[in-house]
Predict the 3D structure of the following.
Amino acid sequence: AQSVTQPDIHITVSEGASLELRCNYSYGATPYLFWYVQSPGQGLQLLLKYFSGDTLVQGIKGFEAEFKRSQSSFNLRKPSVHWSDAAEYFCAVGAMNRDDKIIFGKGTRLHILP
Amino acid sequence: DTAVSQTPKYLVTQMGNDKSIKCEQNLGHDTMYWYKQDSKKFLKIMFSYNNKELIINETVPNRFSPKSPDKAHLNLHINSLELGDSAVYFCASSPDRANVEAFFGQGTRLTVV
């Protein structure tokens, strides 16, 4: 079965600084990988996804993520964060098996300093 | 024109009561889910339906019973509510059961007192 780990519970960066949120997954074959964002009191919104092909994927709101098979990682990056990026970020992994489920990491809370 | 809508958004109830949460999606998706998010923000899948058929049933108390009258609706009924049921419950849908991305509702914050 697949699993996903987000090592950082909290991350604090200054507005305008670059950001990298870590995600490691475990799955025996090529996974489907996702990053979601949850603003306070809101549902989850998909930022980007990787299924196959180019390992660097672009998402909404200026985010990107890179799939690195050798490191079993799918880290999320943004070159310059904005105060509105403060939220909870979830990495998720799915599988090509049609009856497997999408598993979410425990989330990373991003704090932005003015 | 909300894609995945849940009602109610907030639900406060006493222990022992029975309550339902409704979910509807207008995306034409085949698969719908219920997730539970605890106080530590951990998201865990509870159930998944594909075209009204139950395909994922995680280990949850049998006090929780999903019902899918058609593929656009997936309701969650909870009997004999307990304090530990307090959480945010999210409904989601995806085009099919092949693990493409899920579209989430806004959540229902359930508080059992």
About this structure: The first strand of chain B starts at residue 4 and ends at 7.
